[in-house]
Amino acid sequence: MTPSPSVGALQNLQARVVRCRRCPRLVAYRERVAEERVRRFSAEAYWGKPLPGFGDPAAQLLIVGLAPAAHGGNRTGRMFTGDRSGDFLFRALHGAGFASQPDSLRRDDGLQLWNCYITAAVRCAPPANKPTPVEFAACRPYLVDEIRLLARLRAVVALGAIAFRAFLTAWAEAGRSTPHGTLRFSHGLQVDLSGGVLLLASYHPSQRNTQTGLLTPAMLAQVFAQARQALVVPEQTP
User: Fold this and answer.
1) Cα–Cα distance, 123 to 109 (Å, whole number)
2) pTM
3) Which fold has domain 5-229?
4) Per residue in 33-48, pLDDT tens?
């Protein structure tokens, strides 16, 4: 079967992301972390490059995070892979039928996403997990392109207030209309976007949020249950 044009376009976009060197501060930081490493991962070869989005090119669900973790995605080369945030997220995705397994440890661990695509507002691990406004702006075109290429999109889950705002900015830059007035982030917020797309807001599954109980497994499961209800045709997983 010949791949659809969007599959090839997404692959080209992913390759462009990996080659990106737009932000000198982020390039220097991600490469220094990859060279110095930490003791518990000292024997591993770090990825040390920007992270492309990954998942099903025909996805109806898009998940948007903030940025890779220095010793998570920056080490493994895949979004939310190899850190505690990813452990929490993939258990929820597996429970909701969007992921083939409840954990994400390595790029080659066999994980598959069904009807789901994962990306982030910034593709390089930032110092102190805080990208600058200039770095957000430099990375935004990649998210804009993903929005345009994911033609079957019906639901978006934004993980955290920063990802929520970054997505809405990219949505507008992709030529899609946004709701009038100021939207204030709150967990569980649902926003009807143009084209019949539902935006859902969730607290980020960071250790700070999950260990304090600000975000519980039941709360995240509810968000993904609501996302699934927004899909045109619920997918049958193998």
Assistant:
1) 21
2) 0.93
3) Uracil-DNA Glycosylase, subunit E (3.40.470)
4) 999 999 999 999 999 9
